[in-house]
Amino acid sequence: MPGGSFAPAGVAKDRAGQYQGRLTAYVIVACIVAAVGGSLFGYDIGISGGVTSMDGFLEKFFKTVYKKKKLAHENNYCKYDNQGLSAFTSSLYLAGLVSSLVASPITRNYGRRASIICGGISFIFGATLNAAAENILMLIFGRIMLGVGIGFGNQAIPLYLSEMAPTHLRGGVNMMFQLATTLGIFTANMINYGTSKLEPWGWRLSLGLALGPALVMTVGGILLPETSNSMIERGSKDKGRKLLEKIRGTQDVNAEFQDMVDASEFANSIKNPFRNILERRNRPQLVMAIFMPTFQILTGINSILFYAPVLFQSMGFGGDASLYSSALTGGVLCLSTVLSIATVDRLGRRFLLISGGIVMIICQVIVAIILGVKFGENQELSKGYSILVVAVVCLFVVAFGWSWGPLGWTVPSEIFPLETRSAGQSITVAVNLFFTFVIAQAFLSMLCAFKFGIFLFFAGWITVMTIFVFVFLPETKGVPIEEMILLWRRHWFWKKIVPEYAEEGSSMPNNSTV
Fold it and tell me: Rounded to an integer, what distance in angstroms lies between the CA atom of residue 148 and that of residue 214?
């Protein structure tokens, strides 16, 4: 039934206190292998900026940019402003946007593993084409294939991690995707630092090394178990229960299993998840699926990571120093993500998002002031101010790494009921990649037009998103994924929008959760 208007949205029983189980080695291994897909996403973010600053790459594909780069008195903010160069970076994300929507029915009907395997195969083709590129068409087509891989991987992997994880550790386990992403960024920066010395062919090695994690993702997808939620949703209840007992390390899984069965029965009554997700009862989840990834990109982090080498070269650091500075920011991002994993299930999502937002606002304003006062169009920053800018950028990356970096993916992946979970994750990925595409395509032009004001532009958006979290996002820490619907019914604002469909005998606490 497409609408499902008179049925409860997902689970209506509050069984969270009856959940049993622990974090087993089986879950850890499965999640590590699955999270490798995140490293490919991060590797591409990190590799793009480094490759686009290499002379051999620019001279072969973007001669105009190469000539402008060599002009000593070229405007610092505009020397890399080229729509073709931006298209190299951003075409991947537009392809990912489209493929994430295609991935939704595959993830739902054939399982999470199917999408992970499709993503891995696409990455293999894309990395091969990029490494062997002889013209701009090969280069862009390779990027499009990488984008297809990102669309499938980012759609399925966060769902896989959320469904495999025990409730009390779901935040930390889910953040393994972001940790893998940051490790990919850091690895890419270090590889760029080495391959930049291998002119004129070092860029081929940088782009081709994506084959490694792509093969791990593909083979891992073949060997990984499916999630219990997906197996039950597709009718394999007995196999789903056996797997649940195995991954929880106990046979006492009755409460969690019953929640999955209830959710799957309702999910199977929904024939059109994308239409269903527009209904009033799914309004808060839809809002979060749109705004969380939008805000994640509007922090400005991807601009810094995409173009960190370009940004630092524009400030006069020189080729080697710029790549070294980029590697530094990648390493800092990894460490801060580990900090977030260690604290998210104790401090909660809201605390990390709000505190990270405040620190990022301060950092963006400081960088804008330094560049506005000390960095003219045809000048270089002094050594002291350059070091200060890098230090503040690193602090910004730390704040992002403990807040919007991992939680921009974690929160949307854990809030949807089973019947709209795959569609909801597709919307999250599509929105994320759409705004990534827009910012990637526009950033160099914006840098040229806004100059130091680009940092104030992002600071304004971070202010908006921090207020949004404070007012509208309830705390999801410790709430079972199949009982998340109860959270919205208790929230001071969303309870006015989400209809009450409590089943007879369901236990609904009276306290309101902000």
Answer: 13
Q: Partners of 513 in the beta sheet? A: 491
Distance CA(430)–CA(97), nearest Å, equals: 4
Q: Compute the distance between CA of residue 348 and CA of residue 468 in angstroms, rounded to an integer.
A: 16
- Three-state SS for 329-345 is HHHHHHHHHHHHHHHHH
Across the strands, what pairs with 491?
A: 513
Q: For the segment 308-365, what is each residue's pLDDT rounded down to a tens digit?
A: 665 666 556 665 666 666 677 778 888 898 899 889 989 999 999 999 999 999 998 9
Residue 53 tokens, joined: 């600053």
8 Å CB contact between 243 and 163: no
How many Å from the N-terminal Cα to the C-terminal Cα in the chain? 33
pLDDT at 378: 54
The Cα 481–Cα 55 span in angstroms is 49
Count of CA atoms in the C-beta half-sphere (13 A) of 158: 32
Q: List Cβ neighbours of 131 (8 Å cut-off, separation of 6 or more).
A: 204, 205, 207, 208, 211
> Cα–Cα distance between 263 and 482 in angstroms, integer?
7
Q: Do residues 182 and 339 make contact, with C-beta atoms less than 8 angstroms apart?
A: no
Whether residue 366 is predicted with pLDDT greater than 60 in this model: the reply is yes
Q: Which residues of 237-260 are buried (b: 16+ CB within 10 A; e: fewer)?
A: beebbebbbbbbbeeebebbbebb
Tallying the residues shown for the chain, one arrives at: 514
Q: What percent of the chain has pLDDT over 70?
A: 82
Nearest to 172 by CA among 339, 350, 24: 339
Report CA dihedral (243, 248, 252, 254) to the nearest 10 degrees. Answer: -60
Of the pLDDT bands very low, low, confident and very high (cuts 50, 70, 90), residue 127 is very high
Q: Name the strand (E) or helix (H) holding 240.
A: helix 237-248
CB within 8 Å of 474: residues ≥ 6 apart: 350, 487, 488, 490, 491, 494, 513, 514
Q: How much is the pLDDT for 10?
A: 46
Mean pLDDT, rounded, for 92-96 = 85
Q: How far apart are CA 433 and CA 439, in angstroms?
A: 10
Q: Are 298 and 454 in contact (CB under 8 A)?
A: no
pLDDT tens digits, one per residue of 286-301: 999 999 999 998 998 8
pTM over 0.85: no
Q: Is the pLDDT of residue 70 over 70?
A: no
